[in-house]
Amino acid sequence: VVMTQSPLSLPVTLGQPASISCRSSQSLVSSDGNTYLNWFQQRPGQSPRRLIYKVSNRDSGVPDRFSGSGSGTDFTLKISRVEAEDVGVYYCMQGTHWPWTFGQGTKVEIK
Amino acid sequence: QVQLQQSGPGLVKPSQTLSVTCAISGDSVSSNSAAWNWVRQSPSRGLEWLGRTYYRSKWFNDYEVSVKSRITINPDTSKNQFSLQLNSVTPEDTAVYYCVRAAAAGTYDYWGQGTLVTVSS
Question: Do B106 and A50 touch (CB under 8 A)?
Answer without folding.
Answer: no
